[in-house]
Amino acid sequence: MLMLSLDQFPLGKPGVVDSLDLSDEAYRRVAAFGLIPGCLFSLARSAPFGGPLVLEVGATRFLLRRSLARSIKVRDAA
Question: pLDDT by residue (tens digit) across 64-76?
């Protein structure tokens, strides 16, 4: 199964978080929004020019910096 970093994942497609290679503080921040290994998510929007990503995890929608997204490995939910 192909794994990508979150910043490379296609828009609108459901995905599953595989692993997060983040500092403890960054991990706690994203986990507070429900972004943990095994969770389903969808990439709703991608801001141009390296701007933040808009993620949906369940009913929660939030912004995520691309620098953090590069450290999160994900795969297609299918």
Answer: 999 999 999 999 9
According to DSSP, residue 10 is labeled: P
Distance CA 37, CA 50 (A): 24
Alpha-carbon gap, residue 73 to 17, rounded angstroms: 6
Q: Could you tell me which residues come within 8 angstroms of residue 8 by beta carbon, excluding any fewer than 6 positions away?
A: none
Locate 12 and state its tokens.
């609108």
The pTM for the full model equals: 0.92
Give the integer Cα–Cα distance in Å for 26 and 28. Answer: 5
Q: Where are the domains of the chain?
A: 3-76
User: Tens digits of per-residue pLDDT, 33-43?
Assistant: 999 999 999 99
Fold of the domain spanning 3-76: SH3 type barrels. (2.30.30)
